[in-house]
Amino acid sequence: MTKKNNLERTHSKTMKVLVHNEKEAVIVTLKEDITRLQGERDDRDKQIADLKADKDELQTKLSKVAGEKMLDKNPQIADLSDSRRPQKLVEMISILYDNKWTDAFEKSEDKGDEKQICVYLLDIFKACWNYCKETCEKQTKILEQNLLLASENKDGLYALSPGSSKLLTEIRKRSAKEMMPNLYEKFKSVKTDIKEDLQTYVESCLEVCWYSAINEPPMHYGFDAEEQADDFREYTQGGKTVDFVVWPAMYLFINGPILYKGVAQYKN
Prior knowledge:
Elements: H1 2-71, H2 86-106, H3 114-148, H4 162-190, H5 199-214, E1 220-222, E2 232-234, E3 241-247, E4 249-251, E5 258-260, E6 262-267
Parallel strand pairs: 2-6
Antiparallel strand pairs: 1-4, 3-6, 4-5
Helix pairs in contact: 2-5, 3-5, 4-5
């Protein structure tokens, strides 16, 4: 009887050990599964984070490209970060006419009567505008050819991307201040009949004309008060007929909206 009891106790003890070992094995397996699943979860979280980061980066790049394309040669959308945007040039030309032009008028009284002086000063502005347009066009062609390593005999077959074109315009605007003295000297070499005491007036004309020329697209100035009658205001008197133009009208681009009305003298 004692032997039987001992066998039963031994069996019971053995079963308990087996059950315990099985439980421990199950616990170990579960812990391993938990660790594995946690690792898989962490990997998935990292993949999701990486994908989200890639998505955000792509969206940023797409937004940047879309913004560049939208702003590039689209003057209807103002780039408020540009200190020489068209709206600022309107302020510049207004100050030029109200202040610098008046000073230049007083210094040009030896040119004749009021009409002759006005025509003389307008001719200077017109010469500045034509010179800046031509210089800008030549510079653009040279820069694009050099940047793209294009040959001169392939004129018109090369073009910068919208982003590169915008960057080129920004560089020209940023370097304009340092370039102005050279622009003035070169202009003087081709326009030799300008009085030395009109330097301030000429420099101001060149400045606003240069920024207008390098704008994308280039801005435009109108000098015909008869064809563009609504775009001019009277100088000192009105009338049915244009006697002479005093100051040009400024447009956002050729055939574009007017930004600043010109000035003309009228007669009956």
